[in-house]
Amino acid sequence: MPFGSPHSTRARDAHLAHNMIRLRDPDTGDFLHLSGQGSTKDIGQSWLGYKHQADTLRSRACLAGTPFPYKPIHRDLADDRDQNKAA
Q1: Which is the most buried residue in 42, 57, 63, 81, by most CB within 10 A?
Q2: What is the pLDDT along the chain (87 residues), one digit of tens a residue?
């Protein structure tokens, strides 16, 4: 029998999701693609993760000598309404 109820898992997931970020290029407004390479204007195809994961992506790009122009923004600041303004 699993420990806890499905409700406690949902609450935990909601709490963790609040801390998630997207990575956006401030010059172009593009997001980092969900693959971790390249960029996209489609928020549905954009990378979503935690700050420590973004730091790992940045350090790997630096070690590889590739540019990494992306800055972290809170996921709530990059919603569909924000993207529709740019379109």
Answers
A1: 57
A2: 455 555 667 777 676 677 899 999 999 999 999 999 899 999 999 999 999 999 999 999 999 999 999 999 998 876 654 444 444
